Amino acid sequence: MEAILFYLTATVAIFSAFFVTQCRNPINSALNLITTFLCLAVFYVMLEAPFMAAIQIMVYAGAIMVLIIFVIMLLNLGLAVKTRYTHGLAGGGVLAALVLMVTTHFVGTGTATGTGGEITSEVIATYGHTELIGKAMFVDFLLPFEIASILLLVAIVGAVILSKRKV
User: Fold this and answer.
1) What's the N-to-C CA distance of the chain in angstroms?
2) CATH number of the 1-81 domain
């Protein structure tokens, strides 16, 4: 049953990711991207990471996609005429097939390292996903987290300055 759910979700994710790039209307592309994000949330649930699935839905399928749709509406991209460039499709298809063959070869012939981390399923059962993620984010990786926060703040200020007509 899990295999059927996985293959069904993977098929939907692949098709919706394909249609993100192929739709002429940017709103349809954004809706297909939301579908892809929801499929990723289903994968997180299948990996027994419900916190990551909820964050995937709230942050990416929710907040980020609202911002993307606002930008599409502000730029009036729905009225833009999109020209199709087909000369890159053959090269992209050949490159994708090559990457798929190399990845399949390495996954098929490789072996697992046999090493394990300090976070086992017993530790997860004892503390929970949320506490372990919070400890890693705010204790072990506090400096990169704060640097990312400052970069996002600078990007927001830059977007506000660029969007103003007169400064």
Assistant:
1) 59
2) 1.20.120.1200
